[in-house]
Design brief:
- The relative contact order is 0.13.
- The chain has one domain: Up-down Bundle (Four Helix Bundle (Hemerythrin (Met), subunit A)).
- The chain contains seven helices and no strands.
- It is mainly α and 191 residues long.
- The protein is 65% helix and 0% strand.
């Protein structure tokens, strides 16, 4: 939803406060439960060694978790501060967020939560968390394909279509997407 040009500065300030508070609450309720509480109920954060090459897997798991957490925090902050909304469908952003981690992959929140989950599976040696992480990816994929993407297309139209054309859903780009810069360079006449 585009920002209402008639919105007063007081309404705008209240919307931003609500966006920050709502995003913080959603952070605790969604990834806090999905990537924190549920894996804890499976592992109680006790380390086991059921996988061959466990030491290498454990190190990889630690890297995945250490990478996923700051990306997740950055994405949530962008939704509140740039998008002026929350990741929750009940209070969506007013602006399409395509900066930061979103320049590399369309769903960095889901990718970072999955990195945290698979990282925990490797770090704690938990087949249960690995199965849970795979199930979480399937649920996220279905939600993205059947709800999120159609909703974003209806809400942001051509802006989202251009973004979707250049930034993949799950596999990050090697270099950041630079908005319309790539297309304008490609269409610019040779001098």
């Amino acid at each position: 939803m585009p920002l209402d040009v008639h919105e007063s500065s007081e309404e705008s300030r209240l919307r931003r406060v609500f966006a920050v508070a709502g995003t913080a609450a959603f952070f605790v309720l969604a990834p806090g439960v999905v990537a924190g509480y549920i894996p804890w109920t499976i592992t109680h954060w006790l380390v086991h060694a059921p996988f061959p090459g466990f030491t290498e897997l454990q190190a990889t798991g630690a890297v995945l978790m250490a990478t996923g957490i700051p990306v997740l925090l950055e994405c949530f902050a962008r939704f509140a501060l740039q998008g002026v909304g929350t990741p929750a469908p009940v209070f969506p952003t007013q602006h399409l967020v395509v900066n930061g981690s979103y320049r590399f992959v369309r769903n960095p929140m889901y990718v970072s939560v999955l990195a945290i989950l698979f990282g925990q599976a490797m770090f704690f040696g938990s087949i249960g968390v690995a199965v849970y992480a795979a199930s979480a990816w399937l649920i996220a994929h279905l939600f993205v394909v059947f709800y999120e993407e159609p909703t974003l297309l209806r809400t942001f139209g051509a802006q989202y279509e251009i973004y979707r054309k250049h930034v993949r859903r799950w596999i990050p780009r090697m270099s950041p997407w630079r908005g319309g810069e790539e297309e304008s360079r490609a269409q610019a006449p040779e001098l």
